[in-house]
Design brief:
The protein has 241 residues and is of the alpha/beta class. The chain has 8 helices and 10 strands. It has a 6-stranded mixed β-sheet. The protein has a 4-stranded antiparallel β-sheet with strand order 2-1-4-5, covered by helices on one side. The radius of gyration is 17 Å and the shape is globular. The protein binds adenosine-5'-diphosphate (ADP). The site of adenosine-5'-diphosphate (ADP) has 12 residues, from strand 1, strand 2 and helix 2.
Length: 241
């Protein structure tokens, strides 16, 4: 697959190259009468083609941050911009459209549909977005070949290894050519060698497509291989040197 075929974006203009921005994002949860401020004035810019590690202890707010960035939840204060578009004032339909077209998700457990093949799992989100089956399956095939799964197109998830399942999940996440790829411990369930292989595939895809990726991980080896590392301290996003 060529770069053009996987590509979504990439221009010379820094503002246009800004894929994901958080400005003054605050999020509080109320439990048992107590308020917990998990995010408080969180600021972040991630550019097209950039791979950012989110490294923080359990309970620090990584999932909360990914949910805000992925429009799965709304901040109490502040704004999330996807490709320059402010998202807080949008209605449910428009948020769903942005989530479907501009954001891809990869979870620790692949969450592929068990009764469908690898090819169908990657084609389905494109068909839901309105593409004809033949077109969606052709792109799915190209993406799976790019992930070195060309010989596994008709395998169902249960017939694939853990690393292969995650590579299908990554192909599925970028099937609609999103601006932003969000991943919560995408290799947390894999042995170190497989984890490294899956990460390399993901990184190559980020570089080739121009999607930006924000990956929560506990794996410092992988974090070191990303462009930047960020953490959460008292609800704020801090760059790790
Ligand atoms: P991480 O992903 O870094 O482990 P989370 O974002 O899942 O952290 O959670 C951060 C904190 O917010 C935790 O203390 C958690 O208990 C709390 N929390 C998360 N979701 C909710 C919720 N829906 N209601 C109340 N508290 C929550």
């Amino acid at each position: 697959m060529t770069m053009e075929q996987v590509s979504t974006v990439a221009t010379g203009n820094p503002q246009e190259n800004l894929a994901l921005s958080l400005r003054g994002v605050a999020k509080r949860y109320f439990e048992g009468g107590q308020g917990l401020e998990i995010l408080s004035g969180a600021e972040l810019d991630v550019y097209n083609g950039e791979l950012v590690a989110l490294v923080a202890p359990s309970g620090a707010g990584k999932s909360t941050l990914l949910h805000m960035a992925g429009l799965l939840d709304s901040p109490d204060e502040g704004e999330v911009y996807i490709g320059g578009q402010a998202c807080s004032g949008l209605g449910d339909n428009e948020r769903t459209r942005i989530r479907r077209m501009d954001i891809g998700f990869v979870y620790q457990f692949h969450q592929l549909l068990p009764e469908f093949s690898a090819l169908e799992n990657v084609a389905l989100p494109q068909m839901i977005a309105g593409l004809k089956r033949a077109v969606a399956e052709e792109r799915a095939k190209q993406l799976l070949e790019y992930m070195r799964l060309g010989a596994r197109l008709s395998h169902r998830p249960a017939q694939l290894s853990g690393g292969e399942q995650q590579r299908v999940a990554i192909a599925r996440a970028v099937a609609n050519g999103p601006r932003v790829l969000l991943a919560d411990e995408p290799t947390g369930n894999l042995d170190p060698t497989t984890s490294s292989y899956v990460f390399d595939a993901l990184k190559a895809l980020v570089r080739a497509s121009g999607v930006c990726a924000l990956l929560a991980t506990h794996n410092m080896e992988l974090a070191k291989r990303m462009d930047r590392r960020i953490t959460l301290r008292q609800g704020k996003i801090v760059e790790l040197k």
